[in-house]
Write the structure tokens for this entry.
Amino acid sequence: MVVLVDSCGNDEIQHKIHVFQSLGLKVYIVPTSKGPVITLMGNDCIDISNISLVSRTVQHVQLKVPYVLASKIIKDTPTVITLPNGVSIGSGALVVMAGPCSVESQKQIDDAARAVKNAGAQILRGGAFKPRTSPYAFHGLGIEGLRMMRKAADREGLAIVTEVLDPEDIPIACEYADILQIGTRNCQNFSLLRKVGKTGKPILLKRGMMNTIEEFLMAAEYILSEGNMNVILCERGIRTFETETRNTLDISAIPVLKSKTHLPVIVDPSHAAGNWKLIEPLALAAVAAGADGLLIEVHPTPDTALCDGMQSLRPDKFELLMKKINRIASAMALH
Ligand code: PEP
Ligand code: MN
């Protein structure tokens, strides 16, 4: 059941929330173009029509999709997520997150941060807890990596996005990072999704490599249903029969997601391609298709990278790419 209730004064809202919660309903305040509305959800049909508090009920929504809070039916304005460094995601201005696959040393992340900042990126990416296919591969520097990344980012005025794998690492990641990333392998790790949903932090949710768009939105719904509306969706390529690329970038996912959800949509061409030579065409296509941002792997010395060197751009190549990205972004802004 979903009911939208007219916005009203703060005291009245608090009172209503209390009454609805006592009926066993989950209550969400969702900002819309008509002001904030109270959204109620419950599994049973509860008749609330005779409660005087809902005399100004404006809509009962019959949902044709299984996701609710992620849908445009509930929220008709784009979700804009503003980070402590002032950068907004989903505002219409393209946002670029760039940096190495993993933090390897203070010098490496310092060099990466300087390079991506000089080229025009606003957010530093880097893994401290790495999900690797092999248990014997490099798994990141952990908390030490987070500290190094924060130091590098602060020096350059960049925000940080980093992945969390283990629920135990959520508090420490929240301390150091501005955005928590949920990787493709954990897109349907529902208990992890619920846990990051309980933090107020922006969450960058990567599409599961085997997930349909609907499954992807349902994964986002888990985070939203915990009261965290700050979710950024990231298309990073899906598994297909094609072997020339690491994954197949689903460009259609950008306009499809944009038509179904108010959440910002970004694209990671690096993990889609698995090959630095393909990053440029895929990044430019993503911007032209309406992406709100990009997530790109950049390493000061890709040849020595401990992880994903093959798909990482050198700083000089990234700088050139940023020039082209900005040209496409300006062309798109004309519409
Ligand atoms: C990453 O961003 O470093 C990463 C592991 O990405 P994905 O989860 O998309 O493979
Ligand atoms: Mn990587």
Summary: The CA atoms of residues 235 and 259 lie 15 Å apart. Residues 101, 271, 297, 307-308 surround manganese (II) ion (ligand 2) (CB under 6 Å).
